[in-house]
Amino acid sequence: MTRWRLLALATLVLALGFVGYVRLRAVQADRIVEVLGLQPGMSVADVGAGRGDWSVELARVVGPEGRVFATEIDEGRLDDIERASRRAGLDNIRVIKAETRDTGLPEACCDAILLRHVYHHLTEPDATLASLRAALRRGGLMAIVDFEPWGWSASAADVPPGRRGHGMPMELLQDEVRGGGFEIVRAESGWSGRDYLVLARRPQD
Ligand SMILES: C[S@@+](CC[C@H](N)C(=O)[O-])C[C@H]1O[C@@H](n2cnc3c(N)ncnc32)[C@H](O)[C@@H]1O
Known about the structure:
It is a single chain. By secondary structure, the chain is of the alpha/beta class. It has a single domain, classed as Vaccinia Virus protein VP39 (Rossmann fold, 3-Layer(aba) Sandwich). The chain is built from five helices and seven strands, in the order αβαβαββαβαββ. Helix 3 links the parallel strand 2 (67-72) and strand 3 (93-97). Helix 1 crosses helix 2 (53-62). Bound molecules: S-adenosylmethionine (SAM). S-adenosylmethionine (SAM) binds at residues 47-50, 53-54, 71-74, 77, 98, 100, 116-118, 121-122, 128.
């Protein structure tokens, strides 16, 4: 095969991979919107937003009257989220610098909260859960999407014991979330590929 053909093939594979990822993200985003009951005008937090892909999906759903609070502990990612928001032409995403013990979210800011692939990175889950509870309005829902630890992998850096590798055992996650003052509404393994979903509620109390 010539060099040009190889290059064309590699470009095609990359393009198909990218299209597949975008499609998968859109499907997962629809399901997250559904489980959280998101509607135009609502406020939602995307905790540990990474590059902001999911914040953008959520911001489109809550619309100009709604708001997404996108938090990140990594300074570099804050710029990524701002860029993703500008590229998408959105002005309803507020970017917030998180700390290990404090999400940085304002009290009772949110009707709903999403943590996708973040919980297993939390180094101070108890303090973070207290901060999440304070940020969530009474009766509000929190969706945690994560995965069981990979076989021989090492846990994420500085996390508490019991993680058994890179990931978070779903049972342990539910215990911690309950201990943080939430009710478990739904727990579903195999929710999407290797991902499980734990849906929790801040009680009305
Ligand atoms: C695997 S990425 C997931 C990003 C995004 N949620 C997604 O699904 O594409 C995990 C992100 O969580 C962030 N993170 C880790 N601990 C955090 C914390 N305590 N508060 C906020 N972000 C945190 C990391 O910086 C990283 O960007």
